[in-house]
Automatic annotation (TrEMBL):
Organism taxonomic ancestry: Eukaryota, Metazoa, Chordata, Craniata, Vertebrata
Pfam families per the UniProt record, alphabetical: fn3
Name of the protein this chain belongs to: Fibronectin type-III domain-containing protein
Alphabetized InterPro entries for the sequence: FN3_dom, FN3_sf, Ig-like_fold
SMART domains: FN3
Amino acid sequence: MTFCDLSELQCGQTYNVSMFSQDESCSSLEGNKAYVRTAPCPPQNVVVGAQCGAGSMVVSWSPNPDAQYFHVAAVSNTGARLYCNSTGNSCTLNNLPCGQSYNITVLSIRDGCQSKPSAVVESSSAPCIPRNIKGSLDCISNSAWVTWDDSMGATSYFVLARAANGHNSSCTTTSSPCKVQDLNCGTLYTFKLKAINKHCSSIDNATFELETGPCTLTSISAMSQCNSDTILVEWKVTAGTPVYVVTAEGDDNSVVTCNSTSTSCVLQNVHCGMHYSVIVATSSDKCSSLRSPPKKIQTAPCVPANVTVVPSCKDAGAKVRWADSLVPTSYQLIATTRDGHVATCNTSVNNCSLVDLHCGQLYNLSITARGENCTSYPSSSSFKTVPCAPSDIAVDIDCQTNSAAMSWNKSTGAVEYFSFAQSTNGVALFCNSSNPSCTFKGLECGGVYNFSVTASNSICNSSFSSPLQAGAVPCPPSRVNVRMQRIDRLYWAMISWSKVTCPDVDYLAEISGQIENNPQALMTVSSYWLPRPYFEFPVPCSTAFNITVRAKNSAGIGKPLSPITALTAPCAPQSVMYTGNRQSAVLFWNASVFATSYTVYNVSRGTRVKLCNTTELSCQLTDFDPNATIVTASNAVGESNPSQNITGPVTTRRRRDLEFVQFYASLEEDLEIPEVLTLTVTGVSLHVSWTTVTGATEYTLMIEEEQIKGKASKPARVRRVEGDSYTETDLKPQTTYCVRVAAKNAINQSSYSQSKCRNTDALVGS
């Protein structure tokens, strides 16, 4: 094309325009230059100055050398338009009608090209002169009420009353009427009324004259007791006046009167917190010549009313506000709680802010108003402060469901709680509740979380509680297996367990028990923290022990698995002796802890030949060779190492060393074997009771699954009981369990009772 539009050019500039011809490969030489001058820029810093007396306004702006002249436009609120042009930096708009508001803009013009309009400036002409002005006297208070019709363009009005002696009084208002107070008696006043707006006042003042009534009675006195609803008025008697009329007018234009034939009168039912003007007249005509000058008096402040309290959440405070009153010069606010905290505030206005209040408290609030001579009765109200931050946070993490149950102490005044758990990598979980507990779901196993909670009373939230850190630790293994194995002459517990579904888990196994069931020979052994799911422990003979396994990861150490009980094979019988001779002998020994039977072997030919198997502590033998005889003890786990040190023949069977003092005599005696009295089953629980044995301090209870041919025997459950009954829970359903009981004291243990067996029930629904 042979033309082109250039946009976004700057105002007040001269541009050099060059043109080139181009094809796909080349560009021509530069053609003839053209010059383009853009429109002038709009005037800046436009200012309007009102000239109220002349009825005009002067518009000025910053110099702009690029313009030939300037055009000013003023558009009024009625749509009227006024214009003026100037080659300088100002222009005057004359003959402005009163009561108009204007939007004023200025254009820069050069060679018929005009700029964009300047920013709009608002102004107005002088208000119109008020019309229909009237005045009336209020002889009770020696005041004048002035009324008028509203004036166009006025935002406020000013009334001035001036006497020839120079005394004056005034009032200001935004609308008619206006009360000019404190005028003198019997004085002619000239009243002037001005209409005013932001820029001007009305050009001519509206005026009128008014004369106040005479005051021939002498001055009066008026008194009011604090917090009383009466005013006592006194005066001097005037000759020939039978009746006096006392009138009081309040700020709210209420009037109270009383009549008297003496020199005093009591005005009843006056209002608190009020300024009254009181006069005494000789008739009901309050503007008659026989009246007193007005007497000003104020009553006691009213009890502060319409008290409102708005909590200030950030500074643990409250903003208190009450109805305003004309009489009080100051207010005192006192807020108290049951815990003894007191907050006070003294102010001259009708509001006050309290800070640093105690959280979660009910404050009793009283406000008293103070006047010049009196103090009001206190107001009575109450308010509640921001709830306290929840305390005593507890978190219980369920590793099975990857959830956390969070609880805390209830906060007084709280209606809702907002809790959150934030992990160390920034992931946050939220939970809201109306109760002091909440459950978080979706925790990541191995994650460490900071738990915190805030309380809300639906208006303010408390500060957050101190964070409690807890980790989503792994669960313990769900299954643990124990296999006892004897290697050489030592017993080993081969423990293995199922792996936990959680990343980067290590395991710790621990066993604890009493060696040979002796409470003074305690054993506790633990493995290392290892990622593998098994460990081996050497365990002494005749030892019942508990096995626990726990897991840990970066979040911490998990809870241990419920203990599993296991048992080792018994130790070799001790103190083996015999009576008799080689042809016929009785072999006897001390009981081995947890042994259920004993076997005597002959080993003269390099192999073991069984001579006797018994559950007792002795055996009758023939063809007896003490040098080729061994004794072992057995239980469901296995057989002990042999006891080969046989002494004898002895003349009498010794139970134990006779060197024990008499104090131990009763303990040395063989304990009787307890008898199982009852064995009952309830579901998968087994209840057993037995006879008590003299000299026994506790009982060893052995609970064994009945062995099934072709299957490995299960470890027995061994329990130490101090009473004469016991209930075992969490047994397998539909399984036969056999129970044996032995009596025990610090030195001795009896043989086990005869075994009694029962079947557990099937699970419900199975």
